[in-house]
Known about the structure:
33% of the residues lie in helices and 18% in strands. By secondary structure, the protein is an alpha+beta fold. The longest helix is centred in the middle third of the chain and has 20 residues, at 112-131.
Amino acid sequence: MSQVSEEPAAVPCKYRTGKTLGRGSFSVVKEAIHLETGEVFACKVINKRLMEGRQKMVRNEVEILKIVSSRHANIVTLHDYFETRNNVCLCFDLCTGGELLKVILEKGKYYERDAAQLMRKVFDGVSYIHNAGIVHRDLKPDNLLFKDGEIMIADFGLSRFMDEDKPQVLTEVCGTPGYMAPEVYRKRCHDPGADIWSLGVITYFVLAGYIPFDRAETDQEMESVLSGDYTFEPSQSWESVTGLAKGFISSCLIRNHTHRPSATQLLDHPWLSDNTRETSVQS
Ligand code: ADP
Ligand code: MG
C-alpha cells in the first residue's frame, strides 16, 4: 500500500525536475528543465502502479494529444513523451499562469465583456476538438490553464474519440460532479453535448465566482443537475450581468442534450461574437 502512494520518481536522462505545479487523480505535474537547452516544460508524471489496469487511458490520452496538440492556439502542446521504469511522462508547454480556477478564486470573477472574450477562445478550442471527432469529457476550471495570458485547454486524460457510426456509445459515468451533464449522471450517453453543458457551468462560474449546482451533499448536487435546478441568484452577483449572457448560459444548460447547440453554433451567439475589448479581472 505504501508503495502505491509513493511519489513518482524524478524524470531521468534529458530532464531535471523542479517544483510541483499541480496534482490530479493519477498524476503529479512537475517543472522539467531540459538539460541541454535549459528550456522549462511541464511534465505530467503518471505512476504506472497507480495506473495498473488503466494503461489504455494513458495510451488514449497520448493518441488524442497527437491529434489536437499544436493545432490550435488554445490547446496545450505535447512536446515529448517517454516511459521510465515506474512512470509514464508527458512533457507539455509550461503554462506559467496556472489554472483558471485559481485565478478566479484568488482575483475574483470576470467583467462580462472579458468573460465573453475568454470563453470565446475556449469555445473555439472545443469546437476544434469536436470537429476532430473528440469529446474532452472533463472540462472544468482546473483543466483550463494560462500561458502568456492565453487560455489553454488541458488534460485530455478522460477524452475519447467519437464513433461516427455509433455516436452515443460512451456510457461510463466520468467527469467531475458539478460540471457533469444530466445525461452523463444518467449514463445515457456522453457526446459533445456533455462538453457544452460543462462549458455552460464554466461560463456561469467565470461570471459569478461560484458554480450553479454547488450543494452541501453530492446527491443533492446530482438531483439539482438532473432537474436543471439552478438560478441566477443572489441578485447582487447577477444584477449587472446582461440577459444575453444569461441566455447564453441557459442554452448550454438545456437538459435535453440533443437540443443543446454545438460549440461551432455557439461561436455565432451574439454574446460571444461581441468581443472587442481587453481582458481584465474584477476584484
Ligand atoms: P490529471 O489528469 O491528473 O487531472 P492534469 O493534466 O489536469 O492531470 O494536470 C494536473 C494539474 O497540473 C493541472 O490542474 C494544473 O494545475 C497542472 N498542470 C498540468 N499541465 C500543466 C502545464 N502544461 N503547465 C502548468 N501546469 C500544468
Ligand atoms: Mg486535470
